[in-house]
Specification:
The complex is a heterodimer of chains A (234) and B (144). Chain A has helices at residues 33-39, 49-78, 88-91, 94-119, 123-153, 162-195, 199-232. The longest helix of chain A is centred in the C-terminal third of the chain and has 34 residues, at 162-195. Chain A has seven helices and no strands. By secondary structure, chain A is mostly helical. Chain B has two domains: 38-94; 99-144. Helices cover 62% and strands 0% of the residues of chain B. Chain B contains five helices and no strands. In chain B, helix 2 runs antiparallel to helix 3. The relative contact order of chain B is 0.09. Classes of the chains: A mainly alpha (234), B mainly alpha (144). Chains A and B meet through helix 2, helix 4 and helix 7 of A and helix 1, helix 2, helix 3 and helix 4 of B.
């Protein structure tokens, strides 16, 4: 019997085909067609905890991206207001920026390797790759704080001009995120060591990898829009 | 009597497996371990790393090249940055357009819309404001 797809109730499965609602927003997809007919996409109860935790953290990451977008917008508007002080061209050392970029990129890569090790329940490789991730992240923070210290000692601190206030807020906020990420990373290493690959620990670790990759994506914006474009601005 | 679908996520072992039956996949989540999976995942991460390094190098190179029209360098850097963000999303966060990723991609699209409105909207409005204001010297000269 041929039933046209749009005649089915919402959430029902067409014969032998894919679900009508392939995005099954937040719900399990293994409910039977009869269950869907009576209860809609909510059949079978809420989504598994893994999905709820991970998706919720993804939403948090996106809200953090919006936070950074406001700081980027502030910086873009204020970048020209130097109050007679030095501009990006006189202040930024692009060699330092390139080194920071490479450190953070390899740190993100090592974090991906750690997620592969966790998926295979390999404690040694998990700890080794997480340690590398943390050391590279710490190297990034050392370079960044060195740069901040040099700028402040030259009299170009955040109080000097609107441009410098916006710069220190944006880049410093990213640095604070990396610091918090390092603390979290140390906690994850300790928990894997003490508690093993328990389900809730793996959920936490999934959130951590999301956080760490997102920080690298934001750094791409910072090194391009602040450091490189600062170089071509008048 | 407990629910046949295991509402209690901690006691039912099926709850952690349930979604891999055919529901959502999370960003950054590795695939189930199996033969050949490790090699293909490693290849994906290495490809992402190589592409990201290439795009970073290209952005630093674009700064000092004479191959690009001077005022266009800024646009080239923005394009390279957006491309590299895409590389990170695809190869490190494994974001795809498959049905099991639609929730993630839709949320991301909303985040990108908000970020774009904030950044481009602010720059646009503030530039027009500066453009339509009297220069500061004129304002000072107009004081009695």
């Amino acid at each position: 019997m041929s039933t046209s797809t749009d005649a089915l109730p919402p959430g029902a499965l067409p014969q032998g085909g894919r679900p009508v609602d392939p995005s099954h927003l937040g719900h399990r997809n293994d409910a039977t067609a009869a269950e869907r007919e009576y209860t809609g996409a909510g059949a079978g109860g809420p989504a598994p905890k893994r999905i709820v935790v991970g998706y919720g953290f993804w939403i948090f990451i996106l809200s953090d991206v919006i936070l950074f977008a406001t700081l980027f917008a502030t910086y873009a508007v204020l970048a020209g207001n130097r109050a007679g002080g030095p501009g990006p061209h006189a202040l930024f050392d692009l060699r330092n920026t390139a080194e920071e970029t490479v450190l953070l990129l390899f740190s993100s890569f090592a974090c991906g390797m750690a997620s592969l090790a966790v998926a295979r329940r390999n404690l040694l490789w998990t700890q080794v790759t997480l340690l590398i991730t943390g050391l590279l992240g710490a190297g990034f923070l050392v370079l960044e704080s060195g740069e901040f210290a040099r700028m402040v000692s030259r009299g170009a601190g955040p109080t000097h001009s609107a441009f410098l206030s916006a710069f220190f807020t944006l880049v410093g906020c990213h640095g604070l995120h990396v610091t918090a990420g390092l603390l979290w990373l140390g906690t994850m290493m300790a928990q894997f060591w003490a508690k093993g690959f328990r389900q809730n620990i793996r959920h936490r670790f999934l959130c951590f990898t999301l956080f760490w990759h997102a920080l690298d994506i934001i750094w791409v914006g910072i090194f391009s829009l602040v450091y490189l474009i600062g170089e071509v601005l008048p | 009597m407990s629910s046949p679908h295991g509402l209690d996520a901690t006691s039912d072992p099926r709850s952690d497996v349930g979604s891999s039956v055919g529901a959502d996949r999370l960003p950054g989540e590795p695939a189930e371990a199996g033969p050949g999976v490790l090699a293909s995942e490693l290849r994906s991460y290495l490809l992402g790393l190589a592409l990201a390094l290439l795009l970073t190098g290209a952005a630093f190179w674009a700064l000092h090249t004479h191959l690009i029209y001077g005022p266009g360098i800024m646009m080239a850097i923005v394009v390279l940055a957006v491309a590299q963000m895409g590389v990170h999303l695809v190869f490190f966060l494994h974001l795809t357009s498959a049905p099991d990723n639609i929730n993630n991609t839709l949320a991301l699209a909303f985040g990108v819309l908000m970020a774009g409105l904030l950044i481009f909207g602010s720059v646009w409005v503030m530039n027009h404001l500066n453009h339509n204001m009297l220069p500061m010297q004129e304002l000072i000269r107009m004081q009695p």
